[in-house]
Amino acid sequence: MSCAPIHAASSARNAVTRCQKFLIGILALFLFLCPPFLSKEKVKQDKFHGVVVKTGPKAISVKSENNIYLIRTFNYTPQLEERLKKKSPQPGKKVTVTYVRGSDLATKIK
Q1: Alpha-carbon torsion 76, 79, 85, 88, what sign?
Q2: What is the pLDDT of residue 69?
Q3: What is the pTM of this model?
Q4: What distances in angstroms separate CA 54 from CA 6, 21, 47, 87, one per listed residue?
Q5: Is residue 89 packed enough to be buried (19+ CB in 10 Å), middle (13-18) or exposed (0-12)?
Q6: Nearest in space to 102 (alpha carbons), one of 43, 52, 23
Q7: With pLDDT > 70 as the criterion, what percentage of the chain qualifies?
């Protein structure tokens, strides 16, 4: 008759273990499926104002308006590269380059 409390405690532990495994499974499924929906952050972009020094088929060099010693070279995105094949800015022209923050990838040139 002393077996009944042991059996009840064992059954309760099994139920807790099953609940823990179920919750861990649900959490893992949530973490696996949700990152594509949660990671729709907009890429931060900055602008660089200056005068074109040189343009090429893959990159553009621009001298800063504010600092005559600062020249930056930006690579083009594939879409921008296609657009600039038709007409690229000439040296000496003032431009504003929109680029991905923390990189040298130009997304737009005005």
Answers
A1: negative
A2: 96
A3: 0.63
A4: 83, 62, 18, 14
A5: middle
A6: 43
A7: 84
SS (H, E, C) 14-70: HHHHHHHHHHHHHHHHHHHHCHHHHCCCCCCEEEEEEEEEEECCCEEEEEECCCCCC
In this structure, are residues 105 and 92 in contact, taking their beta carbons and an 8 Å threshold?
no
Q: Is the pLDDT of residue 3 over 60?
A: no
Q: How far apart are CA 95 and CA 63, in angstroms?
A: 10
| C-alpha R_g of the chain | 29
- Assess contact for 61 and 54: CB atoms under 8 A: yes
Q: How high is the pLDDT of residue 29?
A: 74
Beta bridge partners, 100, equal 45
